[in-house]
Amino acid sequence: xxxxxxxxxxxxxxxxxxxxxxxxxxxxxxxxxxxxxxxxxxxxxxxxxxxxxxxxxxxxxxxxxxxxxxxxxxxxxxxxxxxxxxxxxxxxxxxxxxxxxxxxxxxxxxxxxxxxxxxxxxxxxxxxxxxxxxxxxxxxxxxxxxxxxxxxxxxxxxxxxxxxxxxxxxxxxxxxxxxxxxxxxxxxxxxxxxxxxxxxxxxxxxxxxxxxxxxxxxxxxxxxxxxxxxxxxxxxxxxxxxxxxxxxxxxxxxxxxxxxxxxxxxxxxxxxxxxxxxxxxxxxxxxxxxxxxxxxxxxxxxxxxxxxxxxxxxxxxxxxxxxxxxxxxxxxxxxxxxxxxxxxxxxxxxxxxxxxxxxxxxxxxxxxxxxxxxxxxxxxxxxxxxxxxxxxxxxxxxxxxxxxxxxxxxxxxxxxxxxxxxx
Length: 423
Prior knowledge:
Largest sheet: 4 strands, antiparallel
Number of helices: 16
Oligomer: single chain
Number of strands: 6
Shape: globular
């Protein structure tokens, strides 16, 4: 999972957040014995590093040992786990990689909610229906939402990642541009090994440390993973996805999921709608009285929410509620949360997005995205980092600039906007 780190707060009804803290676990009816630790996956080979890089990492491992031990990792666990740590140049290459062009939201969703993924999701709903029903009853998160996260994160377990987590995190903590963050993740991974949930060799995942079927970072695993099968381990790595799916539901539930409420809905705005109200920063419960309706007609969901237009005024509009924000806690990307929401809708047999995307818009290059931020900063609208990544701060700055020049303040950065800033 950008993976913002899980990536990423729930009622007292949640049981079994941390098996290591003595919390209760749930025995799934009909569940078999303990699944295989490795899930049959073979760890990916680590490419050869230069002698200098490898020697530097090994010195860092020796220097890092006191910090890990002072954080609660035993000497035996540290020495056992770090014995497999090697400098992995591939994770550094991936960490430095940046796409020249960002994908527009419609292309992202074309992939996220593809016909193949919908079909596979429905097959998984049939295959794991009993388990998913038990998870939904416990945590209140609909089974199709849990399935959608699984599909988004690992294509329903097909792409869990085969890199050994300990070498990857050690390399990133030693040599990465976000060393302190990865050092914290490394300590968390060592504590998972110490708890007996997995062994160092079979702790596999993505290059950045996200693990298992639903790609938990180690710190989030420690906080939210559950032993739903009752076998004594919180196993998100094996071919049996039960613990991973339950852990995902527990994560969402403890991060604000409201049982029985929708994530939101696609909506149609009235002709005189105040576009200054667009954005997650505006939360209201009276959208209906302002003329906002579900796409195709009908009242909007009851409750407080915000309206977003991820492709600007020429694209679809969505009313997002607390459950959408819960998904954002898993991965803080509107595109991701829309992908989960609509993959869930389609798995459940409901319609997809009805509005039209402005597919003729060309994508902005990294340098153009950075230029937009830089010019917004020069005009006093933006105070964030010039990184070419368009999050909430950039969108709000775009809206403020658009209002200042008398155009529709939809917060959507385009080549037209760049021309306006240059002018």
